[in-house]
């Protein structure tokens, strides 16, 4: 297998986080700082902990991914970002109440040094938040120019070699793909005309692509999931990926559904409900933002179970997803699944899953992996949609010629095989 030519990860890697004062962002940033000081283990991170089998099983070669794939070192990462509130990352992390004061104290100075840049914000896209630290400019095109300046200044001031950008901001209201999203000239014109179908996330993403900065979409927002942005990412040779981190309930769905299908067990209904009390829960309490999340969460089961191939088993599945804002739980989400299945001769059975999880604790390692893998992708000359990173997303992006793959373990094989290809090793078609 021929090795892909990859630029070495020399110099510093800037990580720009949109929504840098949020629960996921601050947990990701503080956790990475704690891990690189050797004061905590980055549990959940494939780049930091997982091994990869190379060659045949009997060769017994199981190196750590980070020892054979040229990823940036955590010590070379410099964080920055934007938020609609002015709090520095330490104050914001205290507000989010995910990590303990003791843990935050280990990296307090570094966190305090992260002062958000003014955000691109439009109340129409996140109804429940009232931003006070927001850029002003006559058009969305001008706002995009302002974001480009922020990126350029961040690079110069911190003497960075490369930058990756990740959206950890709020879920925007549901935006249907329309004509303005189809072609690059239409998108540019729409930005210049302040078209209401251009969301703030699109303004950031456009600026990133123009600067050659990979863009990761951690929310279900439309953002780069449109032909105009696919074209632009190819033109600027920039990786893009999304949408919506796959962390809790949907991760379980993409493990349990293949199990049912593999055993040819039937499914009548899947009722998923959540209680969540953080700011994300508050934003998702708005029907417009919930609709975006709902679309993302609902797509999974049908794709895996293929009802058109198995109408007797999956032709009539009732699938419902609810998210309830319940402040006392803060970031500690509880996700319940009631799954009505049937077996031999149609006899009914039930599965109940109660996942008492921590939203941001599950999302933080995904942020770290996605940042490091997108930096790798850029150095390896990959651009456009990074479907090999579908493993990390609830609604993996794909162009009009492909369909998404949702099965977690197929996604994992794809991820590892892409890494094998990048480093010139043979691909392996079963899981190690
Ligand atoms: N397990 C998970 O936590 C998980 C899983 C999948 C997706 N997500 C998504 O990740 C995102 C972040 O989740 P969270 O729990 O950290 O939410 P959060 O509300 O704590 O953080 C979001 C941050 O984004 C900021 N923001 C909103 N609009 C902005 C804009 N236009 N520009 C800059 N900043 C902006 C907010 O002020 C806030 O600080 C949400 O969209 C959520 O749906 C989270």
The unreliable regions are none
Tell me the β content.
15-25%
The proportion of residues forming helix, as a percent range, comes to 25-40%
Largest sheet: 7 strands, parallel
Widest β-sheet, arrangement of strands? 3-2-1-4-5-6-11
Question: Any overview of this molecule?
Answer:
The protein has a seven-stranded parallel β-sheet, sandwiched between helices. Strands 8-7-9-10 form a four-stranded mixed β-sheet. The protein is globular, with a radius of gyration of 21 Å. Strand 5, helix 10 (227-235) and strand 6 form a beta-alpha-beta unit. It contains 16 helices and eleven strands. Helix 1 (23-36) crosses helix 4 (89-96), helix 8 packs across helix 10 (227-235) and helix 11 (249-262) runs parallel beside helix 13 (287-305). It has 432 residues and is an alpha/beta fold. The longest helix has 21 residues, at 359-379. It has two domains: 13-245 and 361-422, NAD(P)-binding Rossmann-like Domain (Rossmann fold), CATH 3.40.50.720; 249-356, Dihydrodipicolinate Reductase, domain 2. The chain binds nicotinamide-adenine-dinucleotide (NAD). Nicotinamide-adenine-dinucleotide is lined by residues 18-19, 21-25, 82-85, 96, 119-121, 126, 129, 168-171, 200, 218-219, 244-245, 247-248, 278-280, 283, 359-360, 362-363.
């Amino acid at each position: 297998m021929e090795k892909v030519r990859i630029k070495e990860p020399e110099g510093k890697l800037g990580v720009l986080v949109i929504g840098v004062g949020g629960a996921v962002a601050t947990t990701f940033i503080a956790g990475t700082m704690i891990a690189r000081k050797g004061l905590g283990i980055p549990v959940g991170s494939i780049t930091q902990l997982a091994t990869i089998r190379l060659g045949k099983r009997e060769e017994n070669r199981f190196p750590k991914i980070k020892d054979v794939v040229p990823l940036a070192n955590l010590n070379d990462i410099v964080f920055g970002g934007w938020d609609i509130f002015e709090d520095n990352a330490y104050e914001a992390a205290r507000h989010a109440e995910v990590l303990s004061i003791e843990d935050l104290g280990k990296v307090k100075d570094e966190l305090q040094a992260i002062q958000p840049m003014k955000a691109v914000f439009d109340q129409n896209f996140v109804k429940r938040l009232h931003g006070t630290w927001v850029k002003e400019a006559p058009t969305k095109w001008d706002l995009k120019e302002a974001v480009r300046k922020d990126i350029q200044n961040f690079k110069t001031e911190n003497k960075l070699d490369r930058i990756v950008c990740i959206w950890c901001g709020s879920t925007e209201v549901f935006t249907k793909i329309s004509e303005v999203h189809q072609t690059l000239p239409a998108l540019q014109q729409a930005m210049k005309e302040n078209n209401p179908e251009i969301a703030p996330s699109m303004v950031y993403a456009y600026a990133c692509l123009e600067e050659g900065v990979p863009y990761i979409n951690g929310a279900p927002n439309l953002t780069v999931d449109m032909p105009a942005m696919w074209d632009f990412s190819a033109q600027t040779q920039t990786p893009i990926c999304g949408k919506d981190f796959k962390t809790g309930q949907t991760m379980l769905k993409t493990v349990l559904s293949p199990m049912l299908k593999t055993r040819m067990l039937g499914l009548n209904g899947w009722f998923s409900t959540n209680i969540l009390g953080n700011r994300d829960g508050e934003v998702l309490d708005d029907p417009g933002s919930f609709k975006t999340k709902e679309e993302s969460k609902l797509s999974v089961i049908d794709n895996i179970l293929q009802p058109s191939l198995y109408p007797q088993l999956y032709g009539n599945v009732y699938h419902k997803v609810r998210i309830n804002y319940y402040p006392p739980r803060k970031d500690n989400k509880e996700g319940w699944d009631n799954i009505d299945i049937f077996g031999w001769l149609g006899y009914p059975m039930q599965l109940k899953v109660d996942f008492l999880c921590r939203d941001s604790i599950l999302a933080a390692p995904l942020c770290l992996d996605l940042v490091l893998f997108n930096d790798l992708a850029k150095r390896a000359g990959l651009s456009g949609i990074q479907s090999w990173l579908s493993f990390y997303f609830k609604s993996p992006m794909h162009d009009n010629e492909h369909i998404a793959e949702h099965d977690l373990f197929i996604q994992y094989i794809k991820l590892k095989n892409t890494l094998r290809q990048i480093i010139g090793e043979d691909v392996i078609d079963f899981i190690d």
